[in-house]
């Protein structure tokens, strides 16, 4: 098998709201859209991000076509995490977990889009902070 592309598809009530969020704040661009569907990409993300309107009849199997919001976390590794944190706060993005650094060197924060999808930006620190 050879994988030629990858996508993460999320069911949300308001496709336009999530698409606008990742376009405006995370630099994705729309590649395709129809009623209840939008596909977005960002060259350096490594996958497309697809939003489907909850209850869309083309989603199969229908038994798992619920809302993707609860428990969904979309993570991106970035450089200059502190700069991104300040930029997104200044843009009024809802921050749900303020910036923090884990003992193993993962520095991150989390934000939420209008449909409740949580996005986490992460920077791996060269050295884990010392624990006192």
UniProtKB/TrEMBL annotation:
It holds the Pfam family Glyoxalase. Residues 4-124 form the VOC domain. InterPro entries: Glyas_Bleomycin-R_OHBP_Dase, Glyas_Fos-R_dOase_dom, VOC_core. Signal peptide: none annotated. Gene3D superfamilies: 3.30.720.110, 3.30.720.120. It comes from the Bacteria. This is VOC family protein. It comes from Rhodococcus aetherivorans. The lineage of its organism: Bacteria, Bacillati, Actinomycetota, Actinomycetes, Mycobacteriales.
């Amino acid at each position: 098998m050879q994988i030629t592309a990858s996508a993460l598809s999320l069911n949300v009530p308001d496709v336009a709201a999530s698409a606008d969020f990742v376009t405006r704040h995370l630099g994705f661009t729309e590649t395709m859209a129809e009623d209840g569907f939008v596909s977005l990409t960002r060259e350096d993300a490594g996958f497309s991000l697809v939003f489907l309107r909850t209850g869309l009849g083309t989603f199969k199997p229908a038994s798992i076509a619920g809302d993707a919001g609860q428990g969904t976390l979309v993570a991106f590794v970035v450089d200059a995490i502190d700069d991104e944190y300040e930029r997104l706060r200044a843009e009024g993005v809802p921050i749900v977990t303020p910036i923090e650094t884990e003992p193993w060197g993962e520095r991150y924060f989390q934000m939420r889009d209008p449909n409740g999808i949580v996005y986490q930006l992460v920077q791996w620190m060269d050295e884990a902070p010392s624990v006192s």
